[in-house]
Each structure stands twice: as C-alpha cells, then as structure tokens.
Design goal:
Layout: H1 2-25, H2 30-40, E1 49-56, E2 59-66, H3 69-81, E3 87-88, E4 91-92, E5 103-106, E6 110-114, E7 123-128, E8 132-139, E9 142-146, E10 152-156, E11 160-163, H4 165-173, E12 176-179, E13 183-187, E14 196-201, E15 205-212, E16 215-219, E17 225-229, E18 233-235, H5 236-242, H6 247-256, E19 267-268, E20 271-272, H7 274-283, E21 287-288, H8 293-296, E22 301-304, E23 317-322, E24 331-340, E25 343-348, E26 350-355, H9 365-369, E27 371-376, E28 386-387
Parallel strand pairs: 2-3, 2-4
Antiparallel strand pairs: 1-2, 5-8, 5-11, 6-7, 8-9, 9-10, 12-15, 12-18, 13-14, 15-16, 16-17, 19-20, 21-28, 22-27, 23-24, 23-27, 24-25, 25-26
C-alpha cells in the first residue's frame, strides 16, 4: 500500500512537472517579443508581427512572420545586446516568390477580404475595384494583402491582379475615372443594349482609355475592356479638384445609401456594417478613414462625451459601446453619423435614421443609453485619415 502511495505521488509529481515546465520554456523570449509588438504592432489588424520563440535541443528558435523589417531588426538588436543566442527562422514579408509582384489591384466590383485564407472564414472587410494593395504572401489560392488604410486580410486570386513594379507605375500615372452612382454596370460596347461586362459600385476606379458617344471606354486591372455611361462617372482628376467635403455632402452621400442591408465586414454599397458605412461615406468625399469603429474613435477631435448633442454638427461620428471600468477596458461596438435635427444615420439591420429625441417616433433609446462620445473628422488634420487630394493612393 505504501509503495502504491509513493508511486502515485511520484506520478503526480511528474504530471505537475510536465504541466508547468513547458510554460516556462515554451516562449523563452516572450518578454522581448511582447515589448516589440507593443511598440510596433499594437493593433494586429494593421501591423503584422506574429513572432514566437521556443527551446529546441538547448537552442532558442524564433519562428513566425512579419511585414515590419524595422521591428524585426529592433528585436534582433535587443537580443544581441543582451548576448542571447538564437536561430532566426522568421519569415519576412513579402515572401521571395512575390518580391517582384508585391503590388496588386482589386479587379472585381467588390472583393470580400477574409480573416484567414478560406471562403468560410470571417468576412473581415471589403475592397472596391481599383484599390491598390500590398501583397505579402500566398497560400494555395489566397493572398495576404494590406489595403491603403493598412488593414490586413486575405483575398482569393479571383479578386486581385498582381503587378510588377513597372506595370504598377504605368497604372499609377494613367488617367482614370471614378464611378459615383450607388450601383450600375459596364458594357461590352458603347450602348446600353450590349452585353454587360460587370456590375459596378460607388467608388470603383478604372483606367480611362477614351471617350466615345456619351461613354467612357475603360480598362479593368486584369485587361478587360468595357464602357461606362458618362452620367454616372467622373474623371478622377476632375473629381479630386472638385472635392469640397462639407457637412451637407457627407449627409447627402449617407442618405443615398438608405436601406442598404447590414453586412458584417461590408464596406460597399452591396452591404455595410456600421463602420463600413461611415468609412464609405467619407471615402466618397475623398477621405480614407480607419476600418473599424474601435479605430475610427481615435481619429479627429473630441466634440462631446456628455450626451450634449447640441455640440454636434452634421458629419460628426457618434460612438457607442461599454465604458471602461476599473477592471474592464472600453469596448466600442457601434458607430453612426450625425445628420442634424437630433438625428443620426447608421447601419444596423439596414442603413436608417434614428433620433436622440425621446419624443421622436424614431427615438433610439438603446443607442442613447450606450453612447460613449462623438468625434469630428471633417477638416481635422490627423495622420490616420488619408486625404486623397494630398495623397497619391490612386494616381501619381
């Protein structure tokens, strides 16, 4: 009996030892890695530093991947400074097979971008036709890309055209047009009775070839040629020069999307989530703002955090969620845009207008209760807002 107790005790000791020992050695350099990640990649949605360490036969092995060469260099410098020896097996992006085609263009009206490289994965965001992206890695039929707002996600090969540097430079300098109607189609010939080439949505950008009989002859990134009715399109340079974003313009674009279905991950007129809706409004007014509500809340100027809606102007963004406590961080889960008269427009179920006035028929008690604060993005200098009139995103 005593032998059995001793045996059981030894086994228990070994089990406990086996459970705790890996935790101490599984990530021997975790403190170094986490410090670098906090400095260079605090938001994994827009910066990739997926690096790990482990002990292998008495040596420390670094694995993972990153698109931040400066972060990796900093990590190595700190390890060298502390005389820590390691084996570097970190994959630096873009991968070697993409080194000459690390630029790409979205070539369908709306590309669905996934959180992982498979169609069943979460819809992380969308990108519209003509959007230039950085291409980092290929797995099977999927590419890891980064959009101009720095959002990282995966697109299947049918949604993107890869370009060599010379090709991308040619495209960058080519004349372009932007489609401004909410929805439409392109045609095989310069008449509306000809074969449809593709659907088209607001914000799609094409290379301009020539003007023919009330139509623009345009080229898709993948080489397809089509025609767009001039009434729905504007030369990109002209659109930029005419841009005068105002409160009224923001509201007008928002109302044009009334009734658009809610779509988790959607950022186009085919479907929008709450932040995808506000992002689309601002994009069609010449500004690229961050993708998610929890990112948008850190842009612009604080206008109100006391439910004093008299301070708001049309175009201001209202954020909703759960305030921070002593034990929990703030959670931002919804965003809408103020349109005046105590009302805001937002995507929840569909794009619709709600009121902060308790006496109004469309009073939104639920969102008033979880209101956090409002920010003003219009005419506010902010490094997280790309002004297309000052940035060569679509044309050099």
């Amino acid at each position: 009996m005593i032998r059995q107790l001793i045996y059981i005790s030894c086994i228990a000791f070994l089990i406990i030892g086996c459970e705790t020992k890996p935790n101490a050695t599984e990530e021997p350099l975790s403190n170094y890695i986490e410090a670098i990640k906090a400095s260079y990649a605090p938001d994994k949605r827009v910066a990739l530093f997926d690096v790990h360490s482990k002990s292998v036969q008495g040596k420390i092995l670094l694995t993972g991947m990153t698109n931040l060469p400066e972060a990796l260099a900093d990590l190595k410098a700190k390890l060298d400074q502390d005389h820590i020896k390691y084996i570097d097996s970190i994959e630096q992006l873009p991968t070697q097979d993409l080194i000459h085609t690390q630029n790409g263009l979205i070539n369908i009206s709306v590309a669905n971008l996934r959180s992982t490289p498979k169609h069943s994965a979460e819809l992380a965001t969308q990108a519209t036709l003509g959007t230039p992206v950085k291409v980092y890695k290929k797995i099977s039929n999927w590419y890891l890309i980064q959009t101009p707002d720095r959002y990282l996600s995966w697109v299947d090969s049918g949604g993107i055209t890869l370009l060599e540097e010379a090709q991308f430079e040619r495209w960058s300098h080519a004349p372009k047009v932007i489609f401004l109607a909410i929805y439409g189609v392109s045609y095989e010939e310069p008449n509306t009775q000809s074969q449809v080439i593709s659907d088209v949505v607001a914000g799609n950008i094409f290379e301009l070839l020539e003007t023919i009989n009330g139509f623009y002859k345009i080229a898709y990134p993948d080489g397809r040629i089509a025609y767009l009715e001039k009434q729905n399109v504007m030369p990109y340079d002209q659109w930029l020069s005419n841009l005068r974003p105002t409160e009224e313009q923001l509201v007008r674009v928002g109302k044009k999307m009334m009734g658009t279905p809610y779509l988790w991950g959607g950022t186009s007129s085919k479907g929008v989530d709450c932040s995808g809706f506000t992002k689309t409004i601002y994009f069609l007014n010449g500004m690229i703002i961050p993708r998610d509500a929890s990112q948008q809340i850190h842009t612009g100027k604080l206008v109100d955090d006391q439910k004093d809606f008299s301070k708001l102007q049309p175009g201001d963004l209202l954020f909703f969620g759960t305030p921070a406590t002593k034990t929990e961080k703030e959670r931002v889960v919804h965003v809408g845009m103020w349109i005046g008269n105590n009302q805001f427009i937002h995507s929840s179920g569909r794009v619709h207008i709600s009121s902060m006035d308790p006496n109004s028929e469309n009073y939104d008690a639920y969102n008033r209760q979880r209101y956090l604060r409002s920010k003003r993005l219009l005419n506010q200098p902010d490094p997280n807002i790309i002004d297309l009139t000052k940035s060569a995103v679509f044309k050099n």
